[in-house]
Amino acid sequence: MNDIYHLDLLDEARNPNNFGDLETPDFVSTNYNASCGDVITVSVKLSKDKKKIQDIKWKGQGCVISQASMSVLSQRIIGSEIVKIQQLSQKEILQDLGLDKISVGRIKCLLLGLTAVRKLLNKLEAK
Amino acid sequence: MLQYISMLDVHAIKKDFPILSREINHKKLVYLDNAATSQKPQSVIDAISNYYSYCNANVHRGVHTLSDESTNLFETSKTTIANFLGAKNDEVIFVRNTTEAINGLAYGWGEQNIVADDLILVSILDHHSNIVVWQELCKRKKANLVFIKITKDGKFDFNDFDEKLQKFGHKLKLVAVPHVSNALGSKLDLKKLVQKVQKFTPKSRILVDGAQSAPHLPINFEKMNVDFFVFSGHKMLGPMGIGGLLVRENILKTGEMRPWLFGGGMIAQVHESHTNFQDDLSERFTPGTPDVASIVGLAEASRYLSQLGMENVHKHDSQLVAYALKKLAKIKNIEIVGPKDETRVGSVAFLYQGVHAHDVAQVLDSQGIAVRSGHHCTMPLHTSQNWVATTRASFQIYNSKDDVDLLARGLEKVAEILL
Questions:
Q1: How is domain A7-126 classified at the CATH fold level?
Q2: Residue-wise pLDDT tens digits, B306-356
Q3: Contact B90, B252 (CB under 8 A)
């Protein structure tokens, strides 16, 4: 278990990357974890051709897992093609966090950020 | 300590629960998530297994011996459960759980008694199941749902209740409240509530959510003087999938409440043009083949608790809660939420400064300690108090002071790992 809370992950959660709000976002999306009340709000700025994420900021309250995973996710997707974000898997998020596995009860925590980003991208695609 | 042991022989009781001998993460299991569901003694497991091994047949339908035996088991089990809760047999309607009981009430009673502009009062302490069901009914009926606040120490606020009774009393149809809060352990002063309702709005009905009280307190539906009482078997040592809705006999007799599920078993005569329902009141509300094995299991759980004596069970719980309150208050970074006196029942919940509840629970799990983290299906309560999430340790008859000591030690470890 101590592996879950390894120092890099704790550091990621305590000093998250890209935390905050974008001043002029193209889209904003909020996702809640219904079982614990965690919340993450993501704002993004798209590239001119609208195919890439140019910039992202996020803020939220939650457990170490949800905060650290959103932090590493935000790093991963700056400059990334939207198509690739849609294809991201749970395994890749785990790898980014330096974890092999996570219990079923924590999957929602792990994916809270990714779900928020996907919601936002779905909004974009629906336009 | 001596006085504590005299209440219940926890050491012997633990041996009755096979799951408690399990190891979790190489540590002996310390199960403190009883408010979510309790563990089952061997006698309950055996009762269910024996039913399917030797007595299984459909009830009230066959003339053959097995059907007769199964019907007898069903009826005697029902009597055991009704007696355990101080209700008449006719007042017991079996459902799957508390949530289903409240839903049944909304359809069987609410649909024909709530009209536009009526008022339903709930407490901010209520579980989602006692909120959402009424929210939906109010939406259908254009009625109003109003919340009673809590006091600073997490108890039902009778001043707020008085104000709302004065203000909207004439429109009040139902008061739906938890006997014991699942999140904070706050026990409602039911006598006081009943007196106030009878004085100001005697026609209003009272629903008591007993999911968290039935496992710990002696329950007497007749003496309680309320109209509806709902409970779940699985939180009181019984199996999952069986629970009950107790309805005052008069409400069933007068037709104030009607069946909300229809089919076989609940009918007297079926004609092409219409159906007459069963005279037997609780049969009328139990269409289809009932979950006999679970009812037999729940009866065994009731017997098990009766043998210990519910007064003793309550005292045991009070002592554990008082001990946990004292012990956890000494831990740095912990803020206990909810009542800190003898009115608290079943659980102790807290905030851990600087650590999210899920992380607290995860570290505890690594030490074999099972607790609940989150908002415990009380999101309005958590939102009203600005709590993102809380951690809750909840108790049963097999928990000891040693378990609380292990919890306290585990919580010290949370700071070592995460702070």
A1: Sufe protein. Chain: A (3.90.1010)
A2: 999 999 999 999 999 999 999 999 999 999 999 999 999 999 999 999 999
A3: yes
B377 is catalytic: yes
> CB distance B374–A5 less than 8 Å?
no
**Two structure tokens written together for B119:** 């008022």
CA-derived radius of gyration, chain B: 22
Sign of the CA dihedral running B160, B166, B167, B168: positive
Is-above-0.80 flag for pTM? yes
Rounded-to-10 torsion of CA B24, B25, B31, B33: -110
Alpha helices in A1-127 (DSSP H): 7-14, 64-77, 82-87, 90-96, 107-126
Whether the Cβ atoms of residue B98 and residue B129 lie closer than 8 Å to each other: yes
How close is the nearest chain B Cα to the Cα of A36, in Å?
A: 4
Cα distance between residue B257 and residue B159, in whole Å: 31
For residues B81 and B90, what is the distance between their CA atoms, to the nearest angstrom?
A: 12
> In sequence order, what E strands does B261-403 have?
267-270, 275-277, 334-337, 347-352, 369-370, 372-374, 390-394
Q: Mark which residues 341-360 of B lie under 8 Å from A by CB.
A: 356-359
What would the pLDDT profile of B46-82 be if each residue is shown by its tens digit?
999 999 999 999 998 778 999 999 999 999 999 999 9
Within 13 Å and on the Cβ side, how many CA atoms surround B81? 33
- Residues of B in Cβ contact (< 8 Å) with A61: 388
Domains for chain B: give ranges and CATH numbers. 2-38+309-418 (3.90.1150.10), 47-306 (3.40.640.10)
From A6, A3, A9, A1, select the one nearest A97 (Cα to Cα): A9
Q: Which two tokens stand for residue B403?
A: 């378990």
Give the residues across from B155 on adjacent strands: none
| AA letter at B27 | K
